[in-house]
Write a structure and sequence with these properties.
The chain is an alpha+beta fold. Helices cover 40% and strands 10% of the residues. Strands 1, 2, 3, 4, 5, 6 and 7 form a 7-stranded antiparallel sheet that branches.
């Protein structure tokens, strides 16, 4: 398992998620419902091929119309001519370089180091990205993700579907022409959010062996944060992508534990990277996908979780709870930490988080119990002691507020002090028994009178 799977307790600022890997694929603008897959479908028929870029007399034809024409029986798919000499050079140098290894690198793994860049990469000329050209396809219809096929693939039937894995080689250019992505091929699951949105969306539109240029708005690239050390914030990037291979979806009934753990580790590492960038909704989605993969594996093979699976599930649940807390989803967070404590009752992270969550929900008794146990297990962690004292104060104030409420309910609240020494507020005294005492006295007097009258009547 990758080293990033270690779950370490730290101060509050570092307690929310495990230390992330250096993830090469970070994006910024996708919100997904909790624990559900949301693969974006940008076209309903099929992705564009080279014929989608044909020049018409009155401008480029609509994508949907071109897609329908491509599906006509017997129509041949012709490769587009390379747009200029530069694209030919890129194909020869970066995409067919026999010295560049095809070793699979998982985004989110610490092994995803960049390949050797040519010395002149900083001064390289960027691909032609004139969006007015009829060869460019506006994928989303808003100009923020443009795609241009420069070498067709093996046909529409070779396109990946959601949950298929792909191997893709990437080269990226800033608008200045500087090369910022030049690496070994990435392998990722389409639609799972494991890489930046530009790659994820483009992969679903490409054929096996296809080469394409994709111009991505910062929203679909590295966003407001950029990527150290060479991608600045809010950078528009043109990617040259080659879809090397397409793999079938995971067969959970036949998968090995090691295969599942590799995939789940990728999800957790991706989630950590998003968490550090404060993209909590997308981080939550990654953790949920990792958890779901393990649940499907155990369910379809009718297995009890091994120690390795339990450790990975605890990691996913703890980080899922941290992301859910940031989003205000306290119930979801509480379920996650309860799952951790079911298997590991002394998990300090889970105890600390349960204390914070239950305190925010007003359950101070459970909060104090959880934080006290965490403090006993880790007495050197000062931030646990600070949180514990804070919750104890909140509980004391809550108890005093309840007592004051009860006093008001039974009418024994202490009278308020006068507003000023010169103005005394007179409060009328109200008999708690009402007219009953007066009626009782009157009855007694009447009884005595009757008794005296009867006595005198008997004497006379």
């Amino acid at each position: 398992m990758a080293s990033g799977s270690v779950d370490v307790l730290g101060p509050p600022s570092n307690l929310d998620a495990d230390t992330p890997h250096a993830d090469p694929a970070t994006n910024t603008e996708q919100s997904q419902p909790m624990c559900e897959s949301r693969a974006e479908q940008v076209v309903e028929t099929r992705a564009p091929t080279s014929n989608d870029t044909a020049v018409m007399e009155n401008g480029p034809r609509p994508l949907a119309e071109l897609c329908q024409d491509q599906m006509k029986e017997g129509e041949e798919v012709q490769a587009s001519q390379l747009h200029d000499d530069l694209c030919s050079t890129l194909l020869n140098d970066s995409l067919t370089d026999p010295t560049l290894s095809d070793t699979t690198i998982h985004p989110g793994s610490s092994d995803s180091a960049k390949g050797s860049q040519p010395e002149s990469s900083a001064a390289a000329k960027p691909p032609e990205t004139d969006e007015s050209s009829s060869h460019w396809v506006d994928v989303l219809g808003n100009g923020q993700l443009m795609k241009k096929t420069i070498h067709t693939g093996e046909g529409p039937s070779s396109r990946p579907t959601t949950e298929c894995s792909v191997k893709m080689r990437v080269k990226g250019y800033l608008e200045s022409g500087k090369v910022v992505e030049y690496s070994h091929p990435y392998k990722f699951i389409v639609g799972d959010g494991d890489v930046i949105q530009a790659w994820d969306l483009a992969a679903s539109l490409m054929e096996r062996k296809e080469v394409a240029l994709v111009k991505a708005h910062p929203r679909f690239a590295y966003g407001e944060s950029g990527k150290q050390p060479d991608i600045p914030p809010n950078a528009t990037i043109t990617f040259e992508l080659q879809l090397l291979e397409v793999y079938d979806p995971i067969d959970y009934s036949m998968a090995t534990e090691d295969e599942i753990l590799v995939h789940v580790n990728t999800k957790c590492s991706r989630g950590n990277d998003l968490f550090q960038k404060k993209e909590y909704d997308r981080a939550l989605n990654s953790y949920c996908k990792g958890r779901t993969m393990m649940e499907r594996y155990l369910s379809e093979q009718h297995l009890e979780p091994s120690k390795a699976i339990k450790d990975m599930q605890i990691r996913c649940w703890n980080n899922l709870a941290a992301a859910a807390v940031k989003m205000g989803e306290d119930q979801e967070a509480l379920k996650a930490v309860q799952s951790v404590l079911k298997w590991d009752p002394n998990n300090i992270k889970a105890l600390f988080r349960r204390g914070k969550i239950t305190a925010s929900m007003g359950d101070y008794a459970t909060a104090v119990e959880s934080l006290q146990k965490a403090a006993n297990l880790s007495p050197d962690e000062k931030f646990i002691q600070v949180e514990l004292q804070s919750v104890i104060k909140k509980r004391s104030k809550s108890i005093e507020d309840e007592k004051a409420l009860y006093r008001r309910m039974i009418g024994t609240a202490k009278p308020e002090k006068p507003q000023s020494p010169t103005h005394t507020v007179t409060t009328p005294v109200t008999d708690a028994w009402g007219p009953l005492p007066y009626m009782a006295v009157a009855a007694c007097v009447a009884a005595v009178g009757i008794g005296i009258a009867y006595y005198f009547f008997q004497r006379h």
